[in-house]
Amino acid sequence: MAEEEEGGEGQGEEKKGSKKMLIVVVAAILLILGGGGAFFFLHHKKKGSSEERHHHLTPKEMEKMIKEHPIIDLKPFVVNLSGPPGSAPQYLKVRIALKLDRAVTAKEIDYRMAEIQSAILILLGAQTVGDLQSTGGKLALKDEIRHRINARLDSGKVTDVYFTEFVIQ
């Protein structure tokens, strides 16, 4: 009977130890989850507030942004698209706007306009309807236009290309 009592006390200590261990593990898990939740909440709150700040510029900030990073519109381009021989011709009409890294770049683009238009016309004429129907094809075309223009510039660069009109007929 003495042996049973000793065994009972040992099991009681093991149960107390395992309960303490369980409490420590649960507390650690809750602490990790709480920290992760706090990080997630604070991280997304910062991101949203910076987006709000970007969309609510003061008139002076807007004027400064326009002067520092002008956007210039090019005349519309109308080209025959590439296609299999004997197929009906298809046309692309596109208007392009260029966002520049600085104001002085606009002067160089104006000076090199014939060269830039020629490069864009050649690029557009090599496209097929299949190339341009997907979003990925249009994005690739924007990148290629930006690359070809920047290859011709010395004083600055085009930071983005916008299609303001895009019609395939």
CATH architecture call of the largest domain: 2-Layer Sandwich
Strand share of the residues?
A: 15-25%
CATH superfamily of the largest domain: Band 7 domain
Q: Which outline best applies?
A: elongated
Number of domains: 2
Kindly name the structural category. Answer: alpha+beta
Fold-level CATH name of the largest domain: Tetrahydropterin Synthase, Chain A
Describe this structure in words.
- The structure is a single chain.
- Helix 4 packs antiparallel against helix 6.
- This protein starts with a helix and ends with a strand.
- The chain is built from 6 helices and 4 strands.
- It folds into 2 domains: 2-56; 66-168, Band 7 domain (Tetrahydropterin Synthase, Chain A, 2-Layer Sandwich), CATH 3.30.479.30.
- Mean pLDDT is 84; it is low at 1-5 and 46-53.
- The protein is of the alpha+beta class.
- The radius of gyration is 32 Å and the shape is elongated.
